[in-house]
Amino acid sequence: MTNKFGNATQWIVTKPWVTAMLLLAVTASSCVGHFSPDTFRNLFASQAETETETETEADQPDFANRPAVQSFQFFSQGILLAQSDEFFTPDGVAAMQAVVAALEEEPFISSVTWMEDIPPLNLFGLPEPVFPKRTASPELYAKAKQKALENPFITGQMMSEDAKAMVLMFNYDFFMVESDEQCIAGVRKIAEAAADEFDVAIDFGVTGPFPIHMSMMEQHDSNTFFYQLVGYSVIFLMSLILFRGFVAVVVLGLAPALGVFWTLGFVNLLGYQNNPFIDVVLPILVSLVGLTDGVHLLVQIRKLKSSGLKPLVAAREGLSQVGLACALTSLTTAIGFGSLALARHEFVQQFGCSCVIGVICCFVAVITVIPLACSTRIGNYIQSANKTSLIDRNLSRISGVIDFVLPRKRLVSMIAIAATILLILISATLRPDERLSSALPTRSEPAIALAKLDEAMGGLERGYVRIHWSKNIAADSPEVMQVVKKVDDLLAKEPLLGGAVSIRHLVDALPGEGPPETRMSMLELLLPPFKRVFYEPELRYTSVNFRVRDLGISHYNPVFNRMIAGIEKITEEHPEFRLEANGRAFERWENIYKIVVDLALSLGTASLIIFAILAMVYRSLRIGLISFVPNLFPLAVAGLYLVITGQSLEIVAVCAFTVCLGIAVDDTIHFLTRFEEERAICDSEDEAIRKAFTGVGTALIMTTVVLVSGFATVLVSDSHDHFIFASMGAITIAAALFADLVFLPALLSQFVRKKTK
């Protein structure tokens, strides 16, 4: 099969003009994505927009019977969190009023909502200020504080239960925004400047949906250039140290560099923008994948050239001998990456598709650029440092590993199998999880303020239980309030759910006595904008709202399971009612398990496909089964790392598992390919294993050093997701080298079918 592949690729070096024209054609196509991607995308935009408009119009609900009343919104683009022990003091009130006034005067702030915008709960809807006048006595301030704490629209919504934290909800006028810094730090500085005029200590922080999104994008933009620059620099430096030859390093780096350029151009054509994995991780990942194949190919060409062959012959023979292994590694890597495209998460799908494009581009670049360059006069210089290569000079020492392993092949094989099984069982204890702050820089203001908001107010994200009733139930029926009470009581049992509020709390806050179900008619006395936050009698539903902290969605698994069980019980007791839990946090809880299960299944499917391909290519089921251990062991080691460090099975971790599988199997393929070649001419399997070790050992160690160095550059990222991805990548690749140089030789010697003499 190697000869067939070599014959099929002879034209790459024998017909250099054809190869050059191919490279120019692919490069020109990629340039369209870099410089004019809209030209391609606009061809399909009109039809997509038409379909979207049709679907949107068809999905509109009927609000014909609903009064034209705008309900009060507890949601905003930004949140200013204020913390102090002196809010209900003359200076504290004056300071917060000055802060609100200062924000409202800013052109880029369109609206500000805070405690004073919440009306008092009285039978007549008469205006009554939340705070007393500045000249009021301390007793009046204490009374105002108590009254505010009794208002369900304030406590848990606009102010913490201990009255030491307060939120100001604001929206932006984006037409007046002059800079990104203005939207976060600018808001805080305005508040601090206004509060500094008074003798009161108030700590401010800005968070909310838009500041969080902006912080992610700022990190994305800065990381896109910085980490790529650092990554490429480290890769170049490590390659220079290992190869000890500038010309060889340039030839080696040219192929993955061109592959990355092609990849980003084609990805731009697909419109995959603002994806942190694509813009930050993908270029480094693709360059590393291309570099691994490039190292194997260049090392082989250098060896052939140093043996006396002319550059053209060495390039042709090197491609013939290593090209098939490169094709197999690209195929298996593409399968591993491609399995991510089956996930439900849009970013993961895009990342998977982009990785497949990158693998294909890098493979084409490696098998064309490196042989083409080496077949010219440049080939006379690539082997000049061969004898002084750092790895080559020390390979004889490393070869002692084989001398230790082969006499103990049975013991090492049993250890390999047992260790892999044990680590897989440990890794199986990982549980799916997701946190909103994982994608944020840990030291960013929105992340810090989010943590404080979680502690003070019970969370940023909101969820709700919506209660629907049939036409047989009147909107003011006591049974409606009975169901609401049961849902309230159900949520009150969960300490991780904060800020629960419903029409029950509104009725309880009104003057009067008696159970709330007997006072349903009092809802008519409430101001419609506030009542209709939870109650839509025309649409026959009411809701119970609550807050969720950013603790990790796995913390809410038992909470939401108990909630669902309780809701089902309430529904059985009240058959005319239908209850449903919803909200962003609840949706993430439902989806995270589906997404992780999807990714785990895709990882398992990719593993089976990869090993089936290996069994078919090497025409041996035994070799396919043997390859399981050295390729699952690195993933199990990465899983152990997550367990030891207290991590969870987040989406980024499953992505890393899949990516690492595709990369880790590369070394196994190169070792097995060389083993099969040597086995055909050697007298024994152990001799073939020794020659395979010395034949590909240099390239395996080189690629591992470069790969680990490349992943290590991302470890300095302030993003939790980037850190997990990079650390798992580095650990997996290092473990893969150990498995391929220690476990794989022992397994081959122990279990491979012996040659018949």
Quantity of strands, as a count: 9
Tell me the span between the first and last alpha carbons.
23 Å
What number of domains? 4
How many helix segments?
26
Largest sheet: 5 strands, antiparallel
Q: Which homologous superfamily in CATH is the superfamily of the largest domain?
A: Multidrug efflux transporter AcrB transmembrane domain
CATH class of the largest domain: Mainly Alpha
Which blocks of ≥5 consecutive residues have pLDDT under 50?
A: 44-63
Structure description:
It is a single chain. The protein has 757 residues and is an alpha+beta fold. It has four domains: 185 residues, Multidrug efflux transporter AcrB transmembrane fold (Up-down Bundle), CATH 1.20.1640; 135 residues, no CATH class; 181 residues, Multidrug efflux transporter AcrB transmembrane domain (Multidrug efflux transporter AcrB transmembrane fold); 127 residues, Alpha-Beta Plaits, CATH 3.30.70. It is built from 26 helices and nine strands. The strands form two sheets. Strands 5, 6, 7, 8 and 9 form a five-stranded antiparallel sheet that branches. A four-stranded antiparallel sheet has the order 2-3-1-4, with helices on both faces. Strand 7 and strand 8 form a beta hairpin. The longest helix is centred in the first third of the chain and has 35 residues.
